Amino acid sequence: MTALSLHRRDTAALSPEDSPPPARRRFRTGSATAVLAAALLVSIAAAATVGPADISVPDAFRSILAHLGIGTSPLSALQDGIIWELRLPRVLTAAAVGAGLALSGAVMQALTRNALADPYLLGLSSGASLGAVCVLLLGVQLLLPLAAFIGALAALAATLLLARLAGGLTPSRTVLAGVAVSSLGSALTSLVIFWTATGDSYRNILGWLLGSLSGTQWSSVGIAAGALLLVGVPLLGTARILDGFAFGDDAASALGISVPAVRWSMLAATALLTGAMVSVSGAIGFIGLVFPHVVRLITGPGHRSLLPLSALLGAVFLIWADTAARAAFEPRELPVGVVTAVIGAPVFAYVLARRKGGA
């Protein structure tokens, strides 16, 4: 019997509440993928019509097709600009950021074998925020994605180093080290803002730190979607590796995985993905933490289903969270990070209650 077969057998034996029968799991995965893919397309078209300007879904869809060289737009120049220059870039950026953060959370939870791991809890978001705020205050916004990535990578390195110095990379030590690094990153960010920010920059930076997609442009779509294609898509192909890590380093080694090299390279990839997303959206919590758990309740713990479904669910959720943030209290706009926290906290509590009940 191969190591992979042993791993699959153990997966079912050790997690009965998370592992429905294979036929039911395949049906659930196929159904969930079809539903979420359709929901994502509908959400992109529908969310682009929400706002003060009254534009129907068919007209918005025809306007988008016209810009792609198919047909003509039925909208006026002003309405066409609202769809193409303002709403569509924002909706597409929200979809890419939601998918990237959810995917990063699913990967980090497997690599650290910790159900609480996500880019926010392990300090990546705080590190990326510190790097981004520094370049914003220096007035070199072009370096923002690079600074966010360097900040996220430095925070991840600090978290793993601190956990190793404390006795090894166990799940509990990794999370505790991440909490410490996240707190330090937040404190340094506050210090930098307090020491250097003046005038309206306080308000702008605070809004960015709470998570905001209000200033997104097509360049933001390029950064977020580019990172998702270059880093996120390859991560989708690592399901077998992550299944091995989920059962510990010994199981991963039995599958022929070079544990230290693969773990570090994949964590660096999640840092790059998180840094790119934070650079265009600010620090948005709960997406990377909650949605992998929601998907596990539907399909079980296998990463072949978990990774793509988490990304799709995160994309759909952030589209509508951002739509609610900009439309629910017009003309005032909420930071989208506030909306994700208000919704994500009770959802996570529900997921915890379900898992406890199934244990």
Question: What is the compact description of this entry?
Answer:
The chain has 359 residues and is an all-alpha fold.
Give short descriptive properties of this protein.
359 residues, mainly alpha, globular
Protein architecture, described:
The protein has 359 residues and is mostly helical. 76% of the residues lie in helices and 0% in strands. The longest helix has 36 residues, at 77-112. The chain is globular, with a radius of gyration of 21 Å. Mean pLDDT is 82; it is low at 1-18.
> Over all CA atoms, what is the radius of gyration?
21 Å
* Global geometry: globular
Query: Which runs of at least 5 residues are low in confidence (pLDDT < 50)?
Result: 1-18
In N-to-C order, the SSE pattern is HHHHHHHHHHHHHHH
Relative helix content: over 70%
Gap between N and C termini, in Å?
A: 29 Å
The tally of helices reads 15
Which strand-content bin applies to the residues? Answer: under 5%
- What's the overall average pLDDT, rounded? 82
Query: Based on helices, strands and strand pairing, what is the structural class?
Result: mainly alpha
Q: In total, how many beta strands?
A: 0
Q: What profile does the largest beta sheet have?
A: none
